[in-house]
């Protein structure tokens, strides 16, 4: 199976082509662009396809990161994945960033449960615990920093993600140096996912930052 993987959930914008039969990333493209995912994504997809020697019609599945992360970036990636899947008549699947982080950490520390913790800003963390085999032990959640320090004191596994530095006051065990999702891991998780679970949907653990402005009603004539 040939998988096209897309990641726009953070500041990075990445695409990769993966051959699941050979368990090999054929090509990847992308960069940490900050913003402008909608303008750059298709160019990175074209680059990954060209370097892999594959054409778009050869893709059997689309995998996309669904969050948590950038509200706008997630929407761009999910919309693109659904569009590609519809046009090609192939399944699309969602991959959690927390699951991708945990998978990377588990490969470095096999046989250990993993706590994936991302910095959500505002003194909050995105967190989820996975069993040694990758099965989620808890649901993905957003947690206040002080609460997270209490919750994960004495955790019996490996900690990974951009928020590990915020948890150093707790007696944590091993820390895996994994701060960002790897597009290759996203592709592999996407190949293993069950497409019967439905189309990918954004994993929003917090609402959008934009709020309607009040006090600007237009006076009637």
UniProtKB/TrEMBL annotation:
Gene Ontology process terms (BP):
tRNA threonylcarbamoyladenosine modification
Gene3D superfamilies to which the protein is assigned, alphabetical: 3.30.420.40
Q: Where are the transmembrane segments?
A: none
Task: Name the EC number(s).
Answer: 2.3.1.234
Spell out the InterPro entries in the cross-references. Answer: ATPase_NBD, Gcp-like_dom, KAE1/TsaD, T6A_TsaB
An example of a Pfam family matching this protein is TsaD
Q: What is this protein called?
A: N(6)-L-threonylcarbamoyladenine synthase
Which key words are in the record?
Acyltransferase, Iron, Metal-binding, Transferase, tRNA processing
What does UniProt give as GO cellular component? cytosol
> Could you cite one Gene Ontology molecular function of this protein?
tRNA N(6)-L-threonylcarbamoyladenine synthase activity
Domain Gcp-like span(s) in chain numbering: 34-152
Annotated catalysed reactions: L-threonylcarbamoyladenylate + adenosine(37) in tRNA = N(6)-L-threonylcarbamoyladenosine(37) in tRNA + AMP + H(+)
């Amino acid at each position: 199976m040939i998988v096209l993987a897309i990641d726009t959930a953070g500041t990075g914008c990445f695409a990769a082509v993966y051959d699941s039969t050979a368990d090999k990333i054929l090509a990847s493209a992308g960069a940490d662009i900050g913003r402008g995912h909608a303008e750059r994504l298709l160019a990175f997809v074209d680059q990954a396809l060209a370097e892999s020697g594959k054409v778009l019609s050869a893709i059997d599945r689309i995998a996309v990161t669904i969050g948590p992360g950038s509200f706008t970036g997630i929407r761009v990636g999910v919309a693109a994945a659904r569009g590609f899947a519809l046009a090609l008549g192939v399944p699309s699947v969602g991959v959690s960033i927390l699951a991708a982080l945990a998978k990377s950490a588990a490969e470095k520390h096999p046989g250990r449960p993993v706590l994936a913790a991302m910095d959500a800003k505002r003194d909050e963390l995105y967190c989820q615990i996975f069993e040694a085999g990758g099965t989620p032990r808890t649901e993905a959640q957003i947690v206040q920093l002080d609460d997270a320090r209490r919750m994960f004191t004495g955790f019996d596994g490996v900690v990974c993600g951009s928020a590990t530095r915020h948890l150093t006051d707790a007696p944590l065990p091993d820390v895996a140096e994994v701060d960002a999702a790897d597009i290759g891991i996203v592709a592999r998780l996407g190949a293993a996912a069950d497409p019967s679970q439905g189309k990918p949907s954004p994993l929003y653990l917090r609402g959008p930052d934009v709020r309607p402005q009040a006090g600007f009603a237009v006076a009637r004539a």
